[in-house]
Amino acid sequence: MASDPIKRRDFLKVSAAALGGFLLGVGVGWVAKPVPETAVKPGSMEIKAYFIPSTPIEEPWVGVVHEALQKAAETYPNVSYDWTENVPYSDVPRVMMEAVDGGYNLIFADVFGCEEEARDVAEKYPDVFFVFGSGLGPMEPNVSVFDDWIHEPAYIIGAIAGKLTDSNVVGAVGGYAIPEVNRLINAYKYGVKDYNPDAKVKITFINSWFDPPTAASAAQSQIDEGVDVMYAERYDPFSVTSPLGIPTFGNLKDQYSLAPNVVITGPEWDMWPAVNEVISMINEGRWQAKDLAEWTMMAKGGARLAGWEGPTDSTWHNYKERLDPDIVKKIEERGIIDLVDKLIKDIHEGRFRVPVDETVPVSD
After folding, report:
1. pTM, whole model, 2 decimals?
2. Which domains can be identified in the chain, with CATH numbers?
């Protein structure tokens, strides 16, 4: 974990009203189309990509970006990729300059804790492409921005939790109470309440991006208060929920293998559509500083429900064979598969829009 205590996500509030017009054009066709592999035009420049994250590469948010950049290097013959890791925010601007001096011309960086300093560096190198994990907007001519917008599948797991709970108390363990995390936990809470108005939602923020012991302790405290379904927005409540057979949802990556007896699914982020768009813009000579948010939502394949293959026996990595029998029974008896299938269709077809609420969620 990065030693700098500054929180990764900026506290800039993005109102649902401001996002409304943008979101209108996002959902078309309920099956997410695969991202086409764009041919490299003759004469395309050599792209040397570099990634600067503020945490270890195994932290899920960072890992998703890293995997997408690895795929870019495998997909495009004119792309190479290197990275560092665990860079404190105070050092990110310096590492950015070192990367440029080293010949890298496409810099991805987590700058949530050093927004202005990172932009000052980018301004000095107008011929270098910068793509920032950021709470602010793009900056002409050379800074595009991204974040994970996985609130849609977060709502779906909330609906599942509301249907699965017997105690009518469900939980969520999050990182920091800031916009990116808030919109996920609020979406989860909306899903719970929409499908079980009597349910209560317990929420704990551990004030860290990667502190497994603290996350596990927070989960145990919630379980002691009656929580019988858990959303692990941070890693690792699984070590607590697995021995107890408590239905659990992962986050950012497909994490079922970490506790196959209890992890049903979770909001999954795929950064490949956004990275592919960045590389394509450069190769096709159409680069522009842009917000890549729509490439990280469900309509363009940037967000999904982990392991979902449709309402078949293979759904959620053969859930009938791996989940605790009591969880399987509830899924079957309470119509969870049909519910999920309908929600996914409705979101993709634009029939239902998940609220974007970045206010600080509170426990019931």
Report:
1. 0.83
2. 16-146+271-300 (3.40.50.2300), 151-266+306-348 (3.40.50.2300)
